[in-house]
Write a structure and sequence with these properties.
Elements (H helix, E strand, L loop, with lengths): L5 H19 L39 H13 L1 H21 L5 E14 L5 E4 L3 E4 L1 E17 L4 H66 L6 H16 L1 H19 L26 H7 L1 H22 L4 E12 L11 E10 L5 H70 L4 H35 L6
Antiparallel strand pairs: 1-4, 2-3, 4-5, 5-6
Helix pairs in contact: 2-4, 3-4, 4-5, 4-6, 4-8, 4-10, 8-9, 9-10
Length: 476
């Protein structure tokens, strides 16, 4: 049997080191448990079977404009794209951390040319009569491989990899949370624009009605059946209705520009919505069990993965206080003649092992462990907070949607009554059977009722968006 080549020795040594490290490495897996007992069902839920949102939950509102805005936001929103970049960062960090489980090594190659005098006293004469010393020249060829490996006997490196894995998972859940928040913001901003446009139309109608009465009073004043006070009072109402128009136009334009930030466009590229609130339908939605709600929310998964990473960091920090065992190996060839470099007689190699036990830095390592444990305790409380906040979020969204739906029906009925009362009062004023004060009261009642109805419709749609977001919005 021929001599063993150094590369074979290194390969066998590395395999042995890996097997030894697997025998001693940690089998730790994080186990984030909140300790919170979930209720059997949501208090505000009706008990009906869950009707979970689809991934494209916004399509249930039946607005092509909203569909286009959502598609643009999902692909171009800056926050979503930044979150996706954080995923790539976490994946790269995981690969970097994972290298600690593998040997490290370098392949080397050197050529050294040296020249030394053979004798300080002997010289040779060269043309021109100048003496020159004799020299010995040598060229040395070297090639080799150096490798080292830290045996993960206490599971320090493996725990660090687990922490990096959980951090990468948390970054993926963060993309879902950011996406869901962005989608909800697009929907609420879009509905705010529609509501402002409807309120603007209502305000213009209120102004027309007030102006019509003012014109009537001015006509009656010419025949002496109306007074200057009547005209001044109605003129005040006209100006109040006119003054309410600019804030609505401002709201429409500013919210339209805000869609640019949400959809990743400059404001000039955003198309102003044209539909009205009445063109939007309310999609059906029913919440499920509390446990089902929590499994659908990306922020819950993110909090859990973050806590799991912290638990793994505790194991890694604790293992830092134990001795570290490092094995090193190097080998290669060295020869003065290049043609003889790879022959067995040119082989050289070395193997070594070292053990390092922290001594003077143990205090700092213990403090680092306490710091890591305290950070994990904080993240545990954050995890519990996320669970409770999610349930509260769902409960509030269910209540808001239910109550605003009832309020819209009641307010619509009140608005119809106010419209009838105003029509009757205007006819009676023209007939001279009522005074202006009665008409002013019915006008204000109608104007306020119309504006309130538009606001309630907006609140109902926003409550629906809030419920979609609270239920995870179709994210998976």
């Amino acid at each position: 049997m021929g001599p063993v080549m150094p590369f074979d020795l290194l390969a066998r040594a590395c395999i042995g080191l890996v097997l030894l490290s697997f025998a001693g490495c940690s089998t730790f897996r994080p186990n984030p448990v909140s300790g919170i007992t979930l209720p059997a069902q949501l208090s505000a839920a009706t008990g009906e079977a869950a009707n979970w949102p689809d991934p494209d939950w916004w399509r249930g509102f039946g607005s092509p404009e909203l569909d286009a805005l959502m598609q643009q936001a999902v692909t171009a929103n800056f926050d979503i794209r930044a979150a996706a970049a954080r995923v790539r960062q976490a994946d790269a960090q995981l690969r970097i951390t994972g290298q600690s489980l593998l040997p490290t090594g370098n392949l080397t190659g050197n050529v050294t040319r040296s020249q030394t005098p053979t004798s300080t006293g002997n010289t040779v004469t060269v043309p021109g009569g100048v003496g020159r010393s004799r020299f010995s020249r040598r060229t040395l060829y070297q090639t080799g491989l150096q490798a080292s490996y830290e045996i993960d006997f206490w599971g320090k490196n493996r725990a660090a990899v687990v922490a990096a894995e959980q951090t990468a998972q948390a970054s993926r859940f963060d993309v879902g949370a950011v996406t869901l928040t962005t989608e909800a913001s697009v929907a609420t901003t879009y509905f705010q624009i529609l509501a402002s446009r409807e309120q603007l139309a209502i305000q213009q109608s209120n102004l027309d009605a007030a102006q019509r009465i003012l014109t009537l009073l001015q006509q009656r004043m010419t025949v002496g059946t109306s007074t200057g006070l009547d005209i001044a009072q109605q003129q005040t109402l006209v100006e109040q209705q006119r003054a309410a128009i600019p804030p609505l136009r401002q709201s429409i334009e500013q919210n339209t520009y805000s869609l640019g930030t949400l959809t990743g466009q400059v404001p000039e590229q955003v198309l102003a919505p044209r539909l009205g609130l009445n063109d939007v339908r309310l999609p059906p939605i029913q919440a499920g069990l509390p446990s089902e709600v929590l499994t659908r929310r990306p922020d819950i998964w993110e909090a859990e993965a973050t806590l799991a990473a912290a638990q793994a960091n505790i194991v890694s920090a604790r293992a830092q206080m134990f001795p570290s065992i490092t094995l090193t190996a190097s080998g290669g060839f060295q020869n003065l003649a290049l043609e003889n470099l790879l022959r067995p007689g040119s082989v050289l190699y070395s193997l070594g092992a070292g053990l390092t036990q922290p001594i003077f830095q143990l205090g700092a390592l213990r403090a680092q462990l306490r710091l890591t444990e305290a950070q994990a305790d904080e993240l545990l409380e954050n995890y519990r907070l996320a669970i409770v906040a999610a349930l509260v979020d769902v409960e509030n969204a269910i209540v808001a949607l239910r109550e605003t739906t009832d309020q819209e029906a009641l307010q619509a009925s009140a608005t119809r009554s106010a419209e009838r009362a105003y029509a009757i009062s205007e006819a009676q004023l023209r007939a001279g059977t009522i005074d202006l004060i009665t008409l002013l009261n019915t006008q204000l009642t109608l104007f306020n009722s119309r504006n309130t109805l538009a606001q309630v419709r907006l609140q109902k749609l926003q409550a629906a968006v809030g419920l979609f977001r609270a239920l995870g919005g179709g994210w998976s």
